[in-house]
Amino acid sequence: MPPRHCALFPAGTTGSASVARLFDQIGLASAALLAVSVAGLGRGPETARYDCPMSREPHGSPASAAPTESSRSARTAGRRFTRLFSVTIAVLVLLVAGLAAANFSQGPRLASAEINLDASVARGNPRLLLTANLPLAEVAAGQVSVSPATEVSTSVNDRALTVEFAGILRYNTVYTVTVTDVAGTSQSATSTLEYKFTTPDIDIYALQRERRLGDSGVKLPDTVRRTTLLGRGDGDVVFSAPRIQQYVALESHLAAVTLGDDDAATLEVVSFAGGDNVQVPLPGAGTIENLRASPSKYLIAYTFTSGPDAQGRRHDRTPFVYDLTEYSGLPVEVTGVDDLPMAVMDLVFVPDSTTLVVQKSELSMFLVDMLGDAVLTPLGQHAELRDFVPGTRALVVADPNEGATIDLADGSVTTLDLAPSLLDRSAYPGKVVLLNEQGRYARLFLQETTGINQLASLIAVTDPDDSSVAFAPASESSSVRDFCVSPNGQYLAVETIPAAGLADEYPTLAAFSGMTTTLVDLDRGTSSRSVSGFLPDWCG
Amino acid sequence: MHMSQTTAVRPVAARRRPGRGLYVGLIIIGILTLLRAFAPAPPADSLADTARDFVTLSISVVIESLPFVFLGIVLSIGVQIWLPEGFLLRRLPKNVVARRVVLSLLGMLLPVCECGNVPLARGLIAKGLTVGESMTFLFAAPILNPVTIITTQQAFGWDGGILAWRIAGGFLIANLIGYIYSRHPKPESLLTPRFREACALGDGHNAADGKARRSAALFTKETSAMLPALFIGAGLAGLIQTAVSRDVLVTLGSNPVWSVLALMGLAFVVSICSNVDAFFILSFGATFLPGAIVAFLVFGPMIDIKMLALLRTTFTAKTLVQLTLIVALCSAVLGLAINYAV
């Protein structure tokens, strides 16, 4: 059997000299073949080969044929390859040079942007993270502009430019952040980074108490309805019961206090995703007050007072906290020093936290973290526990002579020095809501009017430079029951009692028929929307 | 006369024991293993930090590459000896463009990294693949193979198009090289004389020999050609990595142009296999720009120190310089274009 070998190497060729000679011959012939194929095919498809690669020798044609023509063709083919290779390299070099120049002359570009939109309208000082494609040089505050005008601060870390907004952003608003003359750390070319985002709408809940009777002669159930700022009408019913005293809305649940015929309270939790209502175990028959929620932490708090016929331990405004995520499904009593039970006057969650501010009956106040070490942190003694300044952890408290804010971040107390309102001298002052830490506030006034036999309700908004009436009921005979500020400080929610409203005589949080809640845009000074009912979740 | 020369040479080759080198190697490994087993443990500080780094880095390249080199050799033996004559090549399309495309995707069936592709490509050349076609396979297969694609996807996901750019870049560059070298008038001149000679002599054994015997002989031959190259390449990679501060590379990473060149330089130096290079470079992802990452992932599998050492067993130095130039420029174009546009 003959030895196996590559098809292009003639059998018996051995030794490097022979191979070299053979290669020369093959090379000439193959070059000729290549030249012919290139010329003949006009850059058409090359000839596929199934034998060894070096083979360019046409099978059956002697390698020595027409040596002069072959060498000429080989030289031509060689030149063609050299030209092809050179052109390829030249084109690639030009591309590299062009792209390098283009890259050098290009400033940083925006690679991505990130902002928690839900948090931007719920918590203070939201941050927009702009990530560039290159590490950035320092950016001064003057390089950043925001529309609508918003105060911001900036910081740069490698490719990330963080824009921190002062306060909370407005609902349903298109924000445009423009950063000019942004340079990278590695090159001087500058560019402008621009990013637009739209803040989300917000759910609005309201409680509608019914006095009307149904076809069967039974009172129609009370309902909690949900709509949005941009929505129309009163929205959808998310909870209904024969008698609803109050409710709080969480991110995915709603907790409501319902009343039986004997006015005994029941605490129910309903999931927006559907499913059966969960009844929170209570110590017995009694009443529930001060229902509060920490929506993002799935916590609700309330005080419980035993009814007159209760057996065993009697509760007197005993605070409880119920964790919706707790497996046991049992509420936890909040106890005072040495785990002693206590009676509280009011309580409120620190925004977006598990910490509760409790005001005891003797007016002493303290903080307690319900998921932490349960250590009580005293906050002093104050006559009134109000709410937090929107977007901050500054707690507003009031005493007979003055008000103050307690910054829970550092414990500092700042006495409120509020500018006089335009209605101070002409009306009776009522409830005050602090709108920001710079001293802007809204106050309810009751003003004597001619023509009707009652006081007219007015809400004035005052800051150190200005004071104006932000809300007056459409009819002077209507009155304001209560008002509160939206979590971002953009709107006031004002509960209005119509002149013909009839008291519903609920034992706690009594209200009137036909109540409406009006949303007042504090920046624009306009009433943007009204919904039927009262007790908007912002006031919960 | 040719015949008589052949018969004069063949018996010499036949008299050589094909597996002798293998046996000797195994005996040496056995002796070294015994020495290591019974020798006292060296003191922990017997080597300076730099020397220790050099040894660690070099050995890591060898350890990482060795399985794929052997896998490539085994596949090469399979192609050359065990597959029927022309089994693979007959199935390739006749049209050269389609043929190169198919060869680009051959790595999907023969998933070895670039280290293993060299012996495999040598086997394919010996079976009749043209030099240009072998280059297309050689440069495409390390990227266009399932292991590399999966690891790249795992490292970078679908975001940023890193995987897509890598696949597209590898495919285009490999086909461009295949096209260019298909136009070479003397493709045999691209090969080293030694490999030409090896090809000319076939597997060096009479076809009457058993396939197992011929496989052993071919394994010995390929191993003796590949392993020294691998060791030299790994040693060089380790040496340069210990000599060049990585901080220098990272400093350059923030510039859209220098970052591309820096990571190509890093790819050349670290000589990491294409199957794992995505996870290696992932740690640089926050520092370097996407174009630089893609340039690393495209350039590295085609050209690096270890690969050049392995390729030198087959191609002339001039050819390797040309190939390096084309691959480097193409990778740079790709990286710079991505940095500019993305």
Automatic annotation (TrEMBL), chain A:
<dbReference type="InterPro" id="IPR032812">
    <property type="entry name" value="SbsA_Ig"/>
</dbReference>
<feature type="region of interest" description="Disordered">
    <location>
        <begin position="49"/>
        <end position="73"/>
    </location>
</feature>
<keyword id="KW-0732">Signal</keyword>
<keyword id="KW-0472">Membrane</keyword>
<feature type="transmembrane region" description="Helical">
    <location>
        <begin position="81"/>
        <end position="102"/>
    </location>
</feature>
<dbReference type="Pfam" id="PF13205">
    <property type="entry name" value="Big_5"/>
</dbReference>
<feature type="compositionally biased region" description="Basic and acidic residues">
    <location>
        <begin position="49"/>
        <end position="59"/>
    </location>
</feature>
<feature type="domain" description="SbsA Ig-like">
    <location>
        <begin position="137"/>
        <end position="199"/>
    </location>
</feature>
<keyword id="KW-0812">Transmembrane</keyword>
<protein>
    <recommendedName>
        <fullName>SbsA Ig-like domain-containing protein</fullName>
    </recommendedName>
</protein>
<keyword id="KW-1133">Transmembrane helix</keyword>
